[in-house]
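S.,

Sequence below, as promised.
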Amino acid sequence: MTCFGATSTERFIFSMYLYAVKSLRINTITHKFLIRGHTQNEGDTAHSIIEKAIKRAKKSGPIYVPEQYLQIIRSAKKIGNPFKVKEMNYDDFYDLKNLTEEIGLNTTKDIQGNTIKTNDIKLIQFQKDGEIYKYKNGYDEDWIEVETKIVRARSKSPTKEIQNISLKPAYRSKIPIAIKKKTIYEN
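The prediction came back faster than expected:
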């Protein structure tokens, strides 16, 4: 299935890349999409090592709290340096949906007026200078340019300039554990 225009997740990621190159000390972000079924990277190996360590730990008893997972992950690697675990809190996450709405990134038509088929994209690049981003549908093909802003004929609210956008937190407080989940473990 080919998707016309970006899905929500892709739009969020693309908006985050544009925000990063325009707001931070980053000149260019190039994302190379991996070919499904033809990749293996060090992340795959790390996940495999962690999964095995968790299975071993569960054989000796249940895991009750997240801190137990942290310790299992830190000690999962038997050779070389242990994995570094960065604990994150609710206030470490930002609302990318809001960022995407405020930026109003064009993910539907390139500068030639052709429909962008995001499932076909192999590389995408965002640069600090200019009002375009580029993508390729094949590694040997030429870059296709896209204007960053959506042209809104009947927009209710204009898109904001990136320098005027402040990231908003995704959460205002800790996310509580669902009552249903609590009752399952209490019984």
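The first helix runs from residue 8 to 23.

Coffee later?
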